[in-house]
Amino acid sequence: MPSREVTVAVLGASGAVGQQILRNLEERNFPVKELRPLASARSAGNTVKFRGEDVTIREATPEAFEGVDIALFSAGGGVSEKFAPEAVKRGAVVVDNTNAFRMDPEVPLVVPEVNRDEIDNHKGIIANPNCSTIQMVVALKPLYERFGFDRVIVSTYQAVSGSGAKAMEELTEQSRSLLEGTEPKKEIMPVGKLEKHYPIAFNAIPQCDVAEDNGFTLEEMKMVRETKKIFRDDAIGVTATCVRVPVLRGHSESLYVELGKDFDLEEVRQALREAEGIVLQDDIASQVYPMPLDAAGHDDVFVGRVRRDTVNPRGLNLWVVSDNLLKGAATNAVQIAEHLV
Amino acid sequence: MPSREVTVAVLGASGAVGQQILRNLEERNFPVKELRPLASARSAGNTVKFRGEDVTIREATPEAFEGVDIALFSAGGGVSEKFAPEAVKRGAVVVDNTNAFRMDPEVPLVVPEVNRDEIDNHKGIIANPNCSTIQMVVALKPLYERFGFDRVIVSTYQAVSGSGAKAMEELTEQSRSLLEGTEPKKEIMPVGKLEKHYPIAFNAIPQCDVAEDNGFTLEEMKMVRETKKIFRDDAIGVTATCVRVPVLRGHSESLYVELGKDFDLEEVRQALREAEGIVLQDDIASQVYPMPLDAAGHDDVFVGRVRRDTVNPRGLNLWVVSDNLLKGAATNAVQIAEHLV
Lengths: 341, 341
Prior knowledge:
Two copies of one chain form a homodimer.
Chain A: E1 6-11, H1 16-27, E2 32-39, E3 47-50, E4 53-56, E5 58-59, E6 70-73, H2 77-89, E7 93-96, H3 112-115, E8 125-127, H4 131-146, E9 149-157, H5 165-180, H6 218-231, E10 237-241, E11 251-259, H7 265-274, E12 278-280, H8 292-295, E13 301-308, E14 315-322, H9 326-340
Parallel strand pairs in A: 1-2, 1-6, 2-5, 6-7, 7-8, 9-10, 12-13
Antiparallel strand pairs in A: 3-4, 9-11, 11-14, 13-14
Helix pairs in contact in A: 1-9, 4-6, 4-9
């Protein structure tokens, strides 16, 4: 039996991540006394299913957080900036899925498998890292502990669901159009708010967020900055290339890590196998490796293609796959909430 | 006017690459006196279109190469091993698209933009490199000349057409099945001759060829070995992760290169812009970068996302896209043939 039951608000309850949060709260038997789904005025009045019952979505207002113990936010950075202080003022602890507070030095940025102890340092807000960062740091954690490293080069293969439910519809509709030989509609990918839109069906787009001045995208720089903060180690250098591919759910990552000391490959596999949150699927000779279609719907981080670099004997290559809506977002947030109760 | 007209055999004329070779010979006005399309007994008797006429495919036999000046092979490694010596014996020069002779020290491995001068050293056979190697070395050539490098880390996003026309059908059929909610047929991907087959539609498969003993795949090791041979520089260390993605035509590559000396980013862009065979599409602020849907059907290698590493000031990131059936196969072979006449 849980020690206490709590009132949980889910802001962005009708979105792709919000839906997964509700399912996670159910499946993990989270001790919910009252569920309070919140959204914009446009979605208010609709219902969501929770434990077999229809629960009406309320409009997110400052007052809607009265009596809330834990508030899980996934309705965009602007919404978080507006409502997180209001929720905190009313006594709630906010677990925020957006980019709004991640680099705020007052806000812990938490992946439980890596830095669970920081949860207790919160001052009302705890940030959930970016999806592509989360699965990478889970895979890197056992290597960091056992061997150390200060250099990671990563290329991502990201699913469209990172941009929400509408992006998933866009990929399926575009796929249909291209199979039928008609012109695909382009409204969301690669970045909804930017001017140009390209088809993602049967394509690969090397842009997952807006550009920064250094030629990297914000998505790429999130992986750089968040990794340092989560490991509390500014010496970790990450270089990222973030690419959108025609996959609905599940991000994949090709990682190159230069370990801090000599290693035995079997020792690396053993460290990964024993690590919290990781499933090792590593046997290329038998065609065993992680793939996004298999990882979708699962909470774990799947690791395979473990091999020593042919050039640098301390270089290690990994292929890391996880469901970006689950461990990359909803599951990680609910795990943080579990620690809070 | 061409200096001489020649008899050209195309072995594997009905395949995905063979078809592109025929189109290339036409479009580039290759001085063909007689076109001799060859294939297995199964395809013999069918016709191919060339310069508006139907030309009957003949069965590939040793005698079929009598009178042939140039033979372009793309019918698989075993077929090349069998027929290349027969064609050479009869006076033909073979340009081979398969893996059969690439690492043979007697056989030049040629990408004209990089090592055109080696064509003249042939002893009857010239090998065309692997598709993913070709586009990478074209992009690397101007950097090698101007700055030098000995370290490349590459992750690929490879189109299914690298496995032939049937793999393209498989992707479209699987996409239809998954959109309709029916079970997709799995017969070819990731490697036709291996035991296990996985859906490639809406998926990413980190295997493009059979496994080697070191945990890398043959596709990955081709990039390692062929790059050294093409640049005639054994000091070049390449680490590759080769991944199949649901794209029909056009391989993409995320490259990290450590240059041999300090560089100015504008100087790098200028070198790429001026290089033979490269089109620079590099302006992330305006959402300009190469994508496989745009590159399909074009002969060039498209380069973008040019940026300095955030960690190592000599580190450079690039995104390189090219049509794997054209520059990655047919175009490169026909360019070699052009040099021969």
